[in-house]
Amino acid sequence: MLCQFKTSDPAHKRPTDENSPAPASTMRTRNQSYSLTSHQDFDHAGRRDRGPQNHQGELKQMENCFKSMQGNFRKLQAEHKDLKRTYDELLSVRKYYGGAVDHIINNAIKPYARKRRLILDKDDLKSLAAVLTPMLQDALNVGTLGQQVATSQPRIQILHEDLNKMSGAKNEVEELREQVAGLQNELLAKVQDVSVVSDEHFAQDFHSIAALIKTFSRKIQLDETINLSEVLEPVALLAKISPHHWKGRKRSKIFIEAWVWSILIECVFTGAFAVFGKGCESLDQAWKQIFGSGHDHGWPQPSVASETWRSTTVKHLIDAVDESAIDPQGVEGTRLSMDEACALVSSRLRKNLGCLNSQADLASIQKIADKAFGLAMQMSKQQSRLQITCPALGAQYQGEAMSATLDADGEEMTHGNVAFVINPGLSKWGDAHGKSFDQRYEIVRCLVQLEHEYENVKTRRECDLA
């Protein structure tokens, strides 16, 4: 309790007149006050001093208040020490568990929140609850899975025993692998039994097809008003070629010749397995997936591995054709697939060329298709790589791989750029024994029409504008 009392100076005891003002010192003495903690509240405002006895009583009361305050102070000190000790203990506990909580948040809760794309603020209880709720649910689910794993332990033990038994047979497996590798080499070696066809024979067959196509194109009687590029379906060899190259009856014949060759390239010579029809397109895709497609016209780079794989597969396909000749449904009907492919080529040729002249020798079309398929079959059977090739438009003339026709003035050209391809060439990589694939041979050079460089630039501009 707050104790208040006043002390007075002896000067205020002098008698004074009621109307006279009190001395300044007396006023200051009267206004002095002290505050102490005690059980009573003493208010001496406006009261006069009552003598020495009253002062002694007041001092006694002050002493009692002071002693009471000392007791309270000691109690507060003791309570402060207890609170300080408790605070230090709580601080230590908080520091210990705070580190553990931070470890749990950083190593468990935060990664889970990132994985589930949840927002986490460790100082926000709502944010923590939003992450912990699904996390606990997942933990319960994991517990269920743990029970399933526990029930599967006997089966796992059996599997471990089986694996131990299998590991004991590792040496036997290695021996079997060696035997399989030996059998594979033996099978690949048998491909050597394929009859080797000479380069001269391939050149003769190629020239035979070229002669048939040229003769056929010369026999067609064309109406000079017909625009061949609009009547015949678009093909690769004639794409982006300036129309001025086809002006005149002679150039129209060349156009037909190049168009027929383009159909043969697209349908018969486009891949090593194209001769076997659509039923074997997956084999061509597998060949390119295994060995790549970075060579000419998207074929694999010639190598011992790629050409052995190709020729071995072709040999099995030929065996399948022989079997299906007896049983039409044998080995997925390979013979039927080949017949359909040949019929498709003949149909495309007849459909387009018949529109030019109803009197055209359509019987020659079937002969051209048959000879093309026969040549493609012989090419695919060889250990070496044989491929129908042609240069790109605008390519620089190379005499070792190209043969140029006479220009518009009837003069021979030995320099310039390729204006268009009349018929492709036949190229070979490797030898008859399936080696030396880094060497290229031109069995038949491609036939091209050249133009001077300035004409080539003009042609390209016209094509771009078209």
UniProtKB/TrEMBL annotation:
It comes from Didymella pomorum. This is Uncharacterized protein. Keywords: Coiled coil. The keyword Coiled coil applies. Residues 40-55 have a biased composition (Basic and acidic residues). It comes from the Eukaryota. The lineage of its organism: Eukaryota, Fungi, Dikarya, Ascomycota, Pezizomycotina. Residues 59-93, 159-193 form a coiled coil. Residues 1-55 are annotated as: Disordered. The keyword Coiled coil applies. Residues 18-39 have a biased composition (Polar residues).
